[in-house]
Amino acid sequence: MTAEKTTGKDTEEQVGGAVQDAAAAEGTPLVELSDVSKLYGNIRALEGVSLPVHAGRITCVLGDNGAGKSTLIKIIAGLHQHDSGSFRINGEETRLGSPREALDRGIATVYQDLAVVPLMPVWRNFFLGSEPVKGRGPFSRLDVDRMRRTTHSELLRMGIDLRDVDQPIGTLSGGERQCVAIARAVYFGAKVLVLDEPTAALGVKQSGVVLKYVAAARDAGLGVVLITHNPHHAYLVGDRFVLLKRGAMAGSHRKEELALDELTRQMSGGSELEQLSHELERAPVPQHLE
Amino acid sequence: MSRLERFRGKRAGARAGRAAVAGLLAAAIPLAGCSSTGGKRAEEERNAAVGGEAAVGTPRWKIAMVSHSGEGDTFWDIVQSGAEDAARKDNIEFLYSHDDEAGRQAQLVQSAVDKKVDGLIVSLAKPDAMKGVLKKAAKAGIPVVTVNSGQDESRKFGALAHIGQDEVLAGEAVGRELNDRGRKKAVCVLHEQGNVGHEERCRGIRETFDGKVRNLHVDGTNMPSVESSLEAELQSDGGIDSVVTLGAPFAPTAVKAAEGAGSKAEIDTFDLNDQVVTGLKDGSLGFAVDQQPYLQGYEAVDLLWLHRYNADMLGGGKPVLTGPQILTKKDAPTLQKYTKRGTR
Amino acid sequence: MTATPTPTPTPEPAGTAPSEAPEKDRTDERLVHRSLLSRLMGRPELGAVVGAVAVFVFFSFAAESFLRASSLSTVLYASSTIGIMAVPVALLMIGGEFDLSTGVMVTSSSLISSMFSYQMTANVWVGVGVSLLLTLGIGFFNGYLLVRTKLPSFIITLGTFLMLTGLNLGLTKLISGTVSTKGIGDMEGFASAQALFASELSVGSVQIQVTVVWWLALVAVATWILLRTRAGNWIFAVGGGQDTARAVGVPVARTKICLYLGVALGAWISGQHLLFNYDVVQSGEGVGNELIYIAAAVIGGCLLTGGYGSAVGAAVGALIFGMTSKGIVYAQWEPDWFKFFLGAMLLIATLLNAYIRKRAEANR
Predict the structure, then answer these.
(1) Yes or no, beta carbons of B71 and C274 under 8 Å apart
(2) A-chain residues near C354 (CB < 8 A)
(3) pLDDT, position A26
(4) Does domain B56-165+291-313 have CATH number 3.40.50.2300?
(5) C-alpha–C-alpha distance, residues C24 and C98, integer Å
(6) pLDDT at A12
(7) Contact list, C191 vs chain B (CB under 8 Å)
């Protein structure tokens, strides 16, 4: 799969495609966090986290519950502001004031449980909040034909062939719903896609489907931040892995630096897990079970 | 005298409040298009201001009235103004409360007893619920007058007197009047389901009326529904030649319904209001049966005052009847003056 | 449900559990084009339409006078007085909110125009205009309080309901001196206002109340808004997923306030009808009607939880109410059972709706 070289900021920009050449480097990261910290009162939710997002690359953020993943997402999505460190969009120091501002700057966030409105038809969901209209004044009306057609063709482009865009989106599978949300973000010109646990509630097969569209979005030239606690999913598509632990960075690796089992080991608690398994082995058998 | 002044002050306060609200409305649209006909101005031109003050020298006694009226009931509104007028004349502090649910009405009576009022006026729509509290009132030595409903129980519960109309009697009077008018088939329109007095009125009609009577229940809080139900009734049976409504506000609606259904049925009603009198006058209504609610309120307060002042009694152990009185077109011109000011 | 799209095959994620078994056949099923029937089955108003036809057929046999043109006109009138409110209430419910103040708001609206005209001795049209502004104000109050406090609309409008009930009685008594308003039938502008709000139109030999026209117009406008405008999309979205809607940039607060304004507009129309049809308004009226409006919307296929329903459905729900309440009269039945009958209708219609929706979703 793709590999990258994170330090090559000065070389020419490169978008899309399955680039095998590890030496090839990207241009300025679309979004870059360096040494970012966030305080809630006097609780340090995030400390010294750095994260680059390049066009056509997938950066995975891994961590256990409470590791600071959601705080990180909220900063990128414009819901919260960081307290220290730098947050750059296209190299320019930024502080986002609202989710709307983030959207305007090309950062689209897809939340796991808030992706779509289940009872509404697929095409209405697809354009929700940015509906195209025709006619003017009191006769201004939804361009329904265009909405239907575009939805169908855009989903097709992402590899989802829906015969009927009129069905409530709730009748689609969880994976497909995530995919529609991703396709929507791509269609509305997102440059950076932030995905919050897109595979968390899904079965294995569905997860595969979603990861495929994540890869498709990457191939379309988007920078992707994939938040997950599943190292297997991350390893399948990721180019870079940022590990969080109790609000701090526990590591940032390029794919070629890291094997899957090492990632799994680090992710699932590393040495702590070994300790646990050690203890479990030595645990004395309770008497009543003998 | 100082009490009287305070009382007058209160009246002035209410008037000021009314003026303030009107002023507020006036301020809302300064350039309001004016109507040269009707409205407040016409009313003011019609009426000279009627003031009132105590005509007696007795101390300021306290009398409470607790009725089973629902919210915004036009009938009880008139009872109340009768009672208030009597209270003004007799220098009485008058307290009015009401609840259409029997249990809560009993609680209101209880709280009047707790206030140690000098007299109590109660309507007994659901007598059983009131038995206990009226006993307490008797124990506390508070004289009780029952009004409007409960003439059978009034004496049993130890009340001084009952002032009201016998509902069955009133119904019977209507039945006879319908016979005189040569009617054959009547509809009795009940606007409150489960109201015993209403059932009695219709029963009374059935007893004396030679023709057929059908009961029609309507939803009294929803005027369009009353209209359409009655229209439906008239359409479904073309033989209906008279409609009797049990409340004055429903009579004009019945007229509209008859028009809508293309029915020639005559509309008659219990109780009075301004629209009913207008209807009698222009012939859209046949007759009205009045039980003089103003008189019920006025007499009850006045009787309690007389009882306290002079140990007087009324009725000799029998109910004092304020109705039924059948009113027709020829009565209308006289009545109009009184309905307009809300005392008939 | 878990239909998988069939694009270029990708390798199964390595190192994970074996994939779930047979999903291939379901993939094929999905390719079948939805028939017209199943499209129809997906409409929210279908249950109501089936119910309405059933009630109609039932009373056609049970009451011989039911089928006359004049009777149907009466039924339509009864339905329209409910429907004028049921339609905006349905929109509000699709938007995920309730309004318990609708019944008394209608009375408030008519009291305002009547008393303003009378007390100011103004042309009644001025009163009608003032009433429109104040009624919209009440609606705005409901909506604004809702979006600001984030309290459940049930509580807020319960509060407004009680306050309005008290205000209707108290202010009427204070201003008019009695619990009903004074007649304004002899005032200027009354005739023209009556023509607009409470007249009858001759269609052939049948008299149709003008409220029926208002009702149908409202259904048309509401349907247009729901299905063909951005606002409609937002109404569905704020009802079906408020947080999602906010996340994609839908003005949630504005949408909800506008829905309450719509309800107030309906209350104004109904209120003016009440006034100009009867000349005098009883201040205690209207209590309890709010539940009828909600029931009509629910029979018409609106979900109580929001996000689903239609204006046409609510109108059909009102029609069912109108047919049932008047049908019982035409059939000359003992009316003691009327409420029971209505309650049973409501339950049956709702169950039918739920059943049909389930079938429709299974058919996809």
Answers:
(1) no
(2) none
(3) 58
(4) yes
(5) 44
(6) 39
(7) none
To test the contact with chain B by mutation, choose from C64, C67, C73, C74 the residue with the greatest count of B C-beta atoms within 10 A, namely C74
β-bridge pairing A141-142 and A31-40: unpaired
What angle is formed at CA A163 by the lines to CA A162 and CA A169, rounded to 5 degrees?
Answer: 50
Nearest Cα to B143, choosing from B116, B125, B168, B167?
Answer: B116
Q: Do residues B106 and B132 lie in contact, with contact meaning Cβ atoms separated by under 8 Å?
A: yes
pTM: 0.80
Lowest mean pLDDT among A158-172, B325-339, C83-97: A158-172
The single-letter DSSP state of residue B51 is -
* C 286-305: CB under 8 A from A: 303
Give the Cα separation of C47 and C361 in Å (integer).
14
Question: Is the predicted pLDDT of residue C86 greater than 90, yes or no?
Answer: yes
Touch C-A: 3+ C-beta pairs under 8 A? yes
- A223-228/B61-67 β-pairing: unpaired
For residues B193 and B204, give the distance between their C-alpha atoms in angstroms, rounded to a whole number: 17
Question: Using the beta-carbon criterion (under 8 Å), do C121 and B223 form an inter-chain contact?
Answer: no
Find, among C167, C168, C177, the residue nearest to B18 by Cα: C177
Domains of chain C: 49-363 (1.10.3470)
Find the closest chain A residue to C239 by CA distance. Answer: A117
Cβ atoms of residues B247 and B291 within 8 Å? no
The total number of residues written for chain B in this structure = 344
Contact between B26 and C77 using a beta-carbon 8 Å cutoff: no
C:169-228 residues touching chain A, CB 8 A cutoff: 224, 228
What is the predicted ipTM?
A: 0.77
**Interface with C, mutate which of B35, B71, B255, B273 (most C CBs under 10 A):** B35
- The closest of C161, C162, C175 to C114, measured between CA atoms, is C175
Q: What is the pLDDT of residues B244-278, one digit of tens each?
A: 999 999 999 999 999 888 899 999 999 998 889 99
Q: Which amino acid is at B322?
A: T
Residue B101 to residue B147: CA distance in whole angstroms: 17
At what angle are helices C338-363 and C289-299 packed, to 10 degrees?
30
User: In 3D, which of C179, A221, C11, C234 has the Cα closest to residue B75?
Assistant: C179
Q: What strands, in cross-sheet order, belong to the sheet with B325-327? A: B212-217, B185-190, B242-245, B266-270, B285-290, B325-327
- Rounded to the nearest angstrom, the minimum Cα separation between A288 and chain C is 35
Say if the Cβ atoms of C13 and A211 lie within 8 Å. yes
Residues of B in contact with C331 (CB under 8 A): 236
Is A259 an interface residue toward C (CB < 8 Å)? no
Q: Cβ(B183)–Cβ(B205) under 8 Å?
A: no
From the CA of B225, how many Å to the nearest CA of chain C?
Answer: 6
CB pairs under 8 A between A and C: 134
Contact between B35 and C123 using a beta-carbon 8 Å cutoff: yes
CATH 3.40.50.2300 maps onto chain B at 56-165+291-313, 167-290
pLDDT of residue A13: 39
Burial code of A196-208, b = ≥16 C-beta within 10 A, e = fewer?
A: bbbbeebbbbbbb
For domain B167-290, the CATH class is alpha beta
Most B CBs within 10 Å, among C163, C182, C206, to test the B interface: C182
First to last CA, chain A: 51
Task: Map out the domains of chain A with their CATH numbers.
Answer: 31-255 (3.40.50.300)
Contact B272, B344 (CB under 8 A): yes
> Which residues pair with residue A88 across a beta bridge?
A32, A93
A144/C228 touch (CB, cutoff 8 Å), yes or no: yes
C-alpha C282/C-alpha C178 separation (Å) is 10
